[in-house]
Amino acid sequence: MISYISGKVLKNVIGKNGYVDVLTNAGIGYRVFVTLHFTYSDINSEISIYTSFQVREDSQTLYGFNTQQERDFFEELLNVSGIGPKSAISILSTYSIDKIKEIVAQGDSKLLSKAPGLGIKGAQK
């Protein structure tokens, strides 16, 4: 499992499907998909990212986070039936971790379903 990457920023793409391309000191480049709240670094600057490596039948994808807490919460969301990596990233891009916990505690599936790509049934789970 790849849980942390450090290296030089080659490219930043900011937005809904944002990512950072990172070149490690070993000469390997990784594309890491990030939330809308990710703190980007300038091109050619050094960066360290907590990551979650997700292997699916048709893809192997890295998701990146500013903190261990964000990464661990992302992985907790993946344990919910029907929530995949794209839905989990969407939820974390829409709300802070504390707000998500509050929404879940209140059982407000309507508010949670406002995350792009997450329907009311997924929010209820």
From TrEMBL:
Q: Which GO terms describe its biological process?
A: DNA recombination; DNA repair
Extract the NCBIfam families matched here: ruvA
Q: Which InterPro entries match?
A: DNA_helicase_Holl-junc_RuvA_I, NA-bd_OB-fold, RuvA, RuvA_2-like
| Signal peptide, first to last residue | none
One example GO MF annotation:
DNA binding
One Pfam family matching this protein: HHH_5
Residue stretches making up the DNA helicase Holliday junction RuvA type domain:
1-64
Q: Does the keyword Nucleotide-binding apply?
A: no
- The entry's keywords: Cytoplasm, DNA damage, DNA recombination, DNA repair, DNA-binding
What is the name listed in the Swiss-Prot or TrEMBL entry for this protein? Holliday junction branch migration protein RuvA
